[in-house]
Amino acid sequence: MRLNDSAAELCRRVAKQHEALRIAEHKRGCGATILDFGVDVVGGIEAGLILARICLANLAKVDLVPAEPSIWPSPQIQVSTDSPIQACMASQYAGWPVQLDKFFAMGSGPMRARRGREHVLETLKAVDLSSAAVGVLECDAIPSDAVSQMIAEECRVNCADLILCVAPTRSIAGTIQVVARSIETSLHKLFELGFDICEVISGHGSAPMPPPARDFAEGIGRTNDAILYGGRVTLWVDTDDSRIDELGPKVPSGASKDWGRPFAEIFRDYKFDFYKVDPGLFSPAEITMNNLRSGRTWRFGSLRPDVLEKSFTSR
Questions:
Q1: Among 20, 196, 202, 259, whose CB has the most other CB atoms within 10 angstroms?
Q2: Residue 163 pairs with which residues in a beta bridge?
């Protein structure tokens, strides 16, 4: 795989359009490139759609589509891919907590495959041979030289070949790239349940775009709620029907003990420790599985527009 080279090419095109996209490019002293999508700039919708594509190693289509008023009266973020494992699990999944001194960010993007030090990557034997490393960081600060150097060393690339795209969760671009994880959350849930996700052939997902948040906790709450209570995913798989019968009901977010309240409330109850939340919660509200082997279709879960209403209108 050369996921990072694919994402780096997109980043280079994006940097040339930085004024139109309302983003900013910074060069660190060590040689790393930082693309700011919402820390010290406003960013925007188009920047967010591109950021989501970068996070998916440019192996998925990401669009803003008309609202479905029965869920929430705002546009939906739609994702589709024929490379679900590479795009979502080897790239988009936020499996790297990037931390150095007081700096902390959730790290995602294809740089994870270049680093290769996560259980899911080892299980999938996801090895990236790119010369570059491209990451997406969910945080409120531009990473320093020291942080950039640490990431480059972890990914075994020169700093000059490192590109870091940064956006706070509460920014427009940050909101879009998080809500664009509807397919990824379903794949990760299937992986944790023991399903062979290499049997997933294609995926489509959508979730409503939440209104802007005032702070980090509200931002992470609303973006998660968009998927947990308003996310719909369809997967095309090639597997035995018995595996879907067994595991399908466990995939939607409703299978979790923490389901049913806005995520910000759940997050506060766990003292803002993301890793104490039931991992089974992080999946779409509804999932449809089409089995190419048998021609059968299943639908599991249900939407909760009432919870979305409470989350998106809270003050």
A1: 259
A2: 33, 134
Instruction: Read off the tokens for 91.
Output: 């790239």
Nearest residue to 26 via CA among 8, 40, 13:
40
Give me the chain's average pLDDT, please. 96
Question: What single-letter amino acid sits at 189?
Answer: K
CA 82/CA 45 separation, integer angstroms: 24
Amino acid (1-letter code) at residue 253: S
The Cα 243–Cα 260 span in angstroms is: 27
Residue pLDDT, tens place only, 84-110: 999 999 999 999 999 999 999 999 999
- Same-domain status, 215 and 147: no
For every residue of 133-145, DSSP letters joined together read EEEEEESSS---H
Sign of the CA dihedral 147, 148, 149, 155?
positive
Structure pTM?
0.96
Contact 282, 184 (CB under 8 A): no
Place 308 in a pLDDT band, splitting at 50, 70 and 90: very high
Non-local (6+) Cβ contacts of 260 within 8 A are 304, 307
Domain housing 308: 181-315
Nearest Cα to 197, choosing from 56, 94, 83, 57? 83
Is there a domain that residue 200 lies in? yes
d(CA 237, CA 232): 16
Q: Domain of 53: which CATH number?
A: 3.10.340.11
CA–CA separation, 33 and 24 (whole Å)? 10
